[in-house]
Amino acid sequence: MAARSAFPIICRLASPYRSRFQLSPFNLFSDARSVTYMPRPGDGAPRAVTLIPGDGIGPLVTNAVEQVMEALHAPVYFERYDVHGNMKQVPREVMESIFKNKVCLKGGLMTPMGGGVSSLNVQLRKELDLYASLVNCFNFPGLLTRHENVDIAVIRENTEGEYSGLEHEVIPGVVESLKVITKFSSERIAKYAFEYAYLNNRKKVTAVHKANIMKLADGLFLESCREVATQYPIIQYNEVIVDNCCMQLVSKPEQFDVMVTPNLYGNLVANTAAGLAGGTGLMPGGNVGADHAIFEQGASAGNVGNEKIVEQKKANPVALLLSSAMMLRHLQFPSFADRLENAVKRVIMEDKCRTKDLGGNCTTQDVVDAVIAFLD
């Protein structure tokens, strides 16, 4: 299959799917290309990727990716490490592997509630400075949902805000938790959002905030977004208060294109948008910084600890398969990414093999076999 045009290769995390380019059921999955992808010498060398299977359904869905990558003959190989959410910190050898490879694929890591154990997901993002989270939420052809024409890219600041981890007990029964917003982090996430919109032919960026109440913190975030917006006059810019945003999402999600948010709001918005477009088992995502990237299921893996799904081996691997396609494009292997995305979407459109969350009764392995059968 011909490779994608030049612009997704430039974009660090190119959108895996843009519904506005659909024409017919038979060319849904192949963009018209006027520019042939010309790789640099050596770009086809296999790349090492750090693999963290994670907890719960994580090993199931990462194994699905490994099988499909092998069948695809993708030029990547995995360095596997066992990391679990109840660890106090990410082992040093794992961090060294990511520093070396610069790319990681991971399943969900559980975060214990309370008890002073910090989230390893947050640790990874901070230590690697993965300041931008991208979750793509979009309708799949052949999958009936309440809303049509949903095609939203949620870009979330990943390193500060309510996730700064600065909290302490002032006196017994009184806890103080600090929300940190900086000009530096707000500007760079805003710039990333506008770059993404520009490179992916998106028309509008919406900043989500609560500046009517948190006038200084969210006010600084909005000020940064407004300044960056002036550098991209061809991109429409608007703002929405986070509570109104949630209402607008569930009533008219098609009005949103690219959304840029502080840390906590982005988590809520991405999961809401994912639910509207078909569920968390479908939506791909990744976290990226200047030097490193981690690809994982886009919206929160609410079933990561669902023992019944693990025992029955019926976890939906689609989200991580599409995240791995994003990873392939990030590694500059666009034709492999196209083939993988097309196969996954054909399985869903055919409606013969779906997991329970999509109304079917198939196992993870059933979906893997169906995807491999559609690889061309």
TrEMBL record:
Q: Where is it localised?
A: Mitochondrion
Q: What GO biological process, any one, is recorded here? A: isocitrate metabolic process
**Listed GO molecular functions?**
isocitrate dehydrogenase (NAD+) activity; metal ion binding
InterPro entries membership: Isocitrate_DH_NAD, IsoPropMal-DH-like_dom
Record GO cellular component, one term: mitochondrion
Domain (Isopropylmalate dehydrogenase-like): residue spans on this chain: 48-371
Question: Per UniProt, which keywords does this protein have?
Answer: Magnesium, Manganese, Metal-binding, Mitochondrion, NAD, Oxidoreductase, Transit peptide, Tricarboxylic acid cycle
Coiled-coil residues are none
What does this chain do?
Performs an essential role in the oxidative function of the citric acid cycle.
Per the record, the similarity remark reads: Belongs to the isocitrate and isopropylmalate dehydrogenases family.
- Name this protein carries in UniProt: Isocitrate dehydrogenase [NAD] regulatory subunit 1, mitochondrial-like
Recorded source organism is Cucurbita maxima (Pumpkin)
